[in-house]
Amino acid sequence: MHENKRYFTVEEANRLIPEITAIVEGLRRGQQRLLAHSKAAEAVAHKAHSNGGGGDASTYLAEHAQTFSRGLARLEAMGVVLKDVERGLLDFPHWRAGREVYLCWKLGERRIEYWHDIDAGYTGRQPL
Fold this sequence. Notes:
2 helices, alpha+beta, 5 strands, elongated
């Protein structure tokens, strides 16, 4: 067991779901904004820069990137492992029968109901 790594009980993970849901929803919105605006903002920034400006478009992208980064940092600080932003898929390190596994949660699920081996991933989910 890694001494700095956090391990969750099912109850601890379930208590975090409301907070995690808000963070993941924010990350998904942020990812969509970044993807939608990055190419347009890049073109505007390039064009404006050649005219002696361009700060606004770059600032806009940087602000979204910082917001996204803060959400990722919050999850990391909690000890949660984000697997897929788009699907809202997260894992919680957990000890089960003397070995490390992941409690698996997907955005929209009301509580933790699945686990999987660390190397199995989402397709290896098993009911608790």
